[in-house]
Structure formats: structure tokens, C-alpha cells
Amino acid sequence: MERLCCEKPMHHSYVERLFKAEAIRQAVEDLPPGAVYIETSHMFIKTFWDVVMGTFQHPEYCVRIIVLRRYLPAVLRSRMQLGHLHDPKRCMYNGWLYTPNNCVNAQVQGLPTGPHEQAEVQQAYRLLGYIVDIEARARQLKL
Fold this sequence. Notes:
Blueprint: H1 2-7, H2 14-29, H3 43-55, H4 72-81, H5 119-141
Helix pairs in contact: 2-3, 4-5
């Protein structure tokens, strides 16, 4: 799904991504009366917020979005410790981590790096760009 949302504008893949909203609708319908469905996926803000908001805009649904934030340096450090800079299975280009430079729907421009920068510094800039872009998307969603 990440590919659908980075290679072309999101409105081009809207219909292809409706399956996620339908899966949520089914989960909600299977809940007992008075229960609350909570979506905690980090993919929400990147890949299916628009189909969810479009699907659940009827008065029978009450959609609330809660954005959890952590201290930016702590997030960057955590991502680095998880191997998002060096582990090939968790690297930037494995399908869910993107850089603002390779995603047409990014809300911010990538941080510039020069060819003289060490590879780790370039990766850190890319990772920081990703984190800042997620924040920009969350702020846009609140509009």
C-alpha cells in the first residue's frame, strides 16, 4: 500500500485503498454495542486516512483522531537504535519507511545532503525528513 501512496498522488489510488476502510467497517460492525474501534497503525496517516474519513463521514460514525507525539530527538535515536539506518530489513526503502524525496505525497521537502556527507549522516537526514513529514501530515489532517 505504501507504494500506492508514494508513486502517485493519493487521489489516483483512492479506489484501490478502499479495502482498508471496508475492513474497518466490518470490524466495527462485529463489535458489541457501545464498544469503540481504535486504529493504531502508523500507516493510517500515510496510506488510508482519506478513505477512512470519506467512508465514515456519516453521522452514525464518530471519528476522532488522536496524535501521539514523542520528543523528536528521542524518536530519531530510537529509529537509529532499531536499525533503520543499517539493517537491510528495516532500511528506508523496505516499503514503509520513505523519504520526502521519493514520495510524491510528502508534505515537506527532504533535507539536503551533499555528496561529501558520510553515508550515516545522509541516512540520518533522510530519517529525520521522514519523521518531520509524518508530523506535517498529522497537522494537515487536523485542518
